[in-house]
Design goal:
- The structure holds two protein chains of two kinds.
- Chain A has two domains: 181 residues, C-terminal (heme d1) domain of cytochrome cd1-nitrite reductase (Methanol Dehydrogenase, Chain A, 8 Propeller), CATH 2.140.10; 142 residues, YVTN repeat-like/Quinoprotein amine dehydrogenase (Methylamine Dehydrogenase, Chain H), CATH 2.130.10.10.
- The longest helix of chain A has 18 residues.
- By secondary structure, chain A is mainly beta.
- A four-stranded antiparallel sheet of chain A has the order 3-2-1-34, with no helix packed on it. Chain A has a four-stranded antiparallel sheet with strand order 4-5-6-7, with no helix packed on it.
- The radius of gyration of chain A is 22 Å and the shape is globular.
- Chain A contains one helix and 34 strands.
- By secondary structure, chain B is an all-alpha fold.
- Helices cover 63% and strands 0% of the residues of chain B.
- Chain B is built from five helices and no strands.
- In chain B, helix 1 crosses helix 5, helix 2 packs across helix 5 and helix 4 packs across helix 5.
- The N terminus of chain B is likely disordered.
- The chains are: A mainly beta, B mainly alpha.
- At the A-B interface, loops of A face helix 2 of B.
């Protein structure tokens, strides 16, 4: 009897050994992230609990202005490269699962509400391509054709929206397109004459409003996705470069636009200001003078602080605005060429990339102390996996 | 015909500009500064023109494309920006010699 027991245990041990069931190796991905290393065409997979870099993944092409969206299981990162490369990276294994060169020149992408479609926004050839998120096989191509001569426009500001939809803007055509995939095949609604040179777009965190920033004129184009039949309207007509146009050394990014309960915080275009706008009526409340031309204006997840970084040549600085006092409460110098900031999911830390200082610094958002720095090869965008469950990211 | 005349006329302007820029590269722009300028070109100009200068929101600026464009126009565009587009002027941030160095580097091809 005893021998039988031992042999059963032994067999169980051997079986478990053979199938490789070592539970100590299992882990979730909720505290992981991916950081773009633009000089080397690589990414670093990081752990935001241990605050360490776990692994580098190479072979991702030209990653200038690269961005990432996540599969809904938070296991795969879709990396959108400048050179048209679309790569699916398994962040648990730390390797590229699939990779396609889908265009000549690209500018970011989005993942559908159900997680089954990945869309990429292309400059050359201008348009949006939609892929099967699992296989990266092409599902549909949406050429951004406009005008009498059937020109193709660069597409920008591509986001996902509730109802299995994608929204994007046509830079050269001055249009917003809504692509509805709820029936499986794209149904396109075109909004013409929305303004000159829409250069980026954002969707509000609730997925209701799509807003395109205009470089060629003042004001913003707003589409209410609860009522797309009402068309695009103009808001904040004084927002933009104004009558005395100042040079813009880096386009402000809209994706990170900070929204708190009452306010929206916007980067001025070509001016050293952050604008505070009432969220209900889109009226400006205050102009806050800041260190330089703002690029990202991002709210801590609880909305209590807004962090701002700046364009060249003032890009060694980050400032923190208190959203109650509407004043700058801290100025930090994370190093040369600060490009991006990402908060941990509940906002106790913020990770800040400094491209030319070749490091990422992790700050405690309560004390502003630098907790640690991680050396990286020209880091730019930082993307944590909690983006997987946020509309528009 | 007018086009041809222009080309000949432009040659007179650009040949001296070209040589002065080469001199500037050897003379007044230090090795250290040229590393910084190269980084600016690849990384910051690269934000719009692509790190390999194959284009983005801004046009491609590879030697192949530039060989058909006037060097003076490129120099002026970098110096003064291009109204109606996002291209900003750099003459308040960079010296003329530094801009010439950048134009030269674009025409010969950037080193990543």
């Amino acid at each position: 009897m005893k021998i039988l027991k031992i042999s059963i245990l032994l067999t169980a041990f051997l079986v478990s050994g053979c199938t490789g069931l070592d539970y100590t190796d299992l882990r979730g991905t909720g505290d992981l992230g991916v950081i773009i290393e633009r000089a080397t065409g690589s990414v670093k997979i990081v752990d935001t609990t241990k605050r360490v870099s776990i692994k580098q993944v190479t072979g991702l092409g030209d990653l200038s202005h690269a961005s990432i969206v996540y599969s809904r299981d938070e296991r795969y990162a879709y990396v959108f490269g400048r050179d048209g490369g679309l790569s699916k990276v398994d962040i648990l294994k730390g390797e590229i699962t699939r990779r396609v060169i889908q265009a000549g020149n690209s500018i970011g992408g989005a993942i559908s509400q159900d997680g089954k479609l990945v869309a990429v926004s292309n400059y050359t050839p201008g348009g949006v391509k939609v892929f099967d998120a699992n296989t990266l096989e092409l599902v549909e191509e949406i050429p951004a054709i406009y005008g009498k001569d059937n020109q193709r426009s660069k597409t920008v500001g591509l986001v996902d929206a509730p109802g299995q939809r994608f929204v994007f803007s046509l830079y050269d055509a001055g249009e917003i397109w809504l692509a509805d995939f709820s029936s499986g095949k794209a149904k396109i609604t075109r909004y013409k004459d929305i303004g000159m040179q829409p250069y980026d777009g954002l969707i509000t965190p609730d997925g209701r409003y799509y807003i395109a920033g205009l470089f060629g004129e003042d004001g913003l184009a707003l589409l209410d996705l609860w009522h797309p039949e009402k068309g695009v309207k103009r808001i904040l007509n004084n927002y933009g470069r104004g009558t005395k146009k100042m040079p813009v050394y880096k386009m402000p990014h809209l994706e990170g636009w900070a929204m708190t309960d009452d306010y929206v915080f916007l980067p001025s275009v070509g001016r050293d200001n952050v604008l505070v706008v009432n969220r209900r009526n889109w009226k400006k409340i205050k102009t806050i003078a800041v260190h330089g031309q703002p690029v990202f204006v991002m709210a801590r997840p609880d909305g209590r602080q807004v962090w701002v970084n700046y364009a060249y040549p003032k890009n060694d600085t980050v400032q923190v605005i208190d959203t109650e006092k509407l004043k700058i409460v801290k100025t930090l110098k994370p190093g040369k060429a600060v490009l991006h900031m990402e908060f941990t999911p509940r906002g106790e830390h913020v990770w800040v990339s400094a491209r030319d200082a070749k490091k990422v610094t992790v700050y405690d958002t309560a004390t502003f102390n630098a907790i640690t720095t991680l050396p990286m090869a020209k880091p730019s965008g930082i993307f944590f996996t909690n983006r997987a469950h946020r509309i528009g990211l | 015909m007018r086009f041809k005349l222009n080309v000949v006329f432009l040659l007179f302007i650009f040949v001296p500009v070209f040589f002065s820029a080469v001199n500037a590269e050897d003379g007044t722009i230090s090795k250290e500064r040229s590393v910084e300028l190269n980084n600016l070109l690849v990384q910051d100009c690269g934000s719009c023109h692509g790190m390999t200068m194959k284009g983005g929101l801004g046009p491609a600026l590879t030697p192949d494309i530039l060989k058909n464009k006037s060097r003076e126009m490129v120099t002026l565009t970098i110096s003064n920006g291009r109204p109606g587009t996002p291209m900003p002027p750099w003459n308040n941030i960079l010296t003329q010699q530094e801009i010439n160095w950048i134009v030269n580097t674009l025409y010969t091809g950037i080193k990543l």
